[in-house]
Amino acid sequence: MTKIFVTGLKIDAQIGVYSHEKGKAQPLVVDVELDVPTAGAERLSETVNYEMVGEAARAIAAEGHIGLVEAFAERLARACLADHRVTRARVRVEKPLALAPHAAAAGVEITVVRG
C-alpha cells in the first residue's frame, strides 16, 4: 500500500455558518492522505497524481458558499475516492481564523473508506 499525501494546502473558500462569514472568502489549510495499492509504481499513470487533490479542493471552493468545514472535508474525500484506486481518504481541514487570536486553528478531520 502506498500513502499519497498533500500537507499544508492553502485554499480560500467562502465557508462558515455565521453572518459575518457569508459573502467573503477565508483561508483553509488542508491535509490529505490517500491509501493507494500502487507499491512499486514507476510511471505516473500507475498511481494517483497528488495534483488532483489541489484541483479538487479548488473546484469545491469555486462552487460557492459552504456552511460547514465538515461538508468541505467530506466533499474533498469523496472527490479523492472518485479514482477507483484510492481505498481510503483522510482529510483534515483547518480554519485558521475561526478562533483567532485565541487558537492557531480549528477544524475537522474525517476518514472515508471505500466499500
> From the helix content, strand content and strand pairing, which structural class follows?
alpha+beta
Order of helices and strands: EEHHEE
Question: What percent of residues are in strands?
Answer: 25-35%
- Helical percent range? 10-25%
Largest sheet: 4 strands, antiparallel
Radius of gyration: 15 Å
Please state the oligomeric state of the protein chains shown.
single chain
* Low-pLDDT ranges: none
By DSSP (H or I, 4+ residues per run), the number of helices equals 2
The order of strands across the largest sheet is 1-2-3-4
Question: What's the shape?
Answer: elongated
Please state the average pLDDT score.
95
N- to C-terminal distance: 17 Å
Strand tally is: 4
GO molecular function, one term: dihydroneopterin aldolase activity
Pfam family, one: FolB
Protein name: 7,8-dihydroneopterin aldolase
Keywords: Folate biosynthesis, Lyase
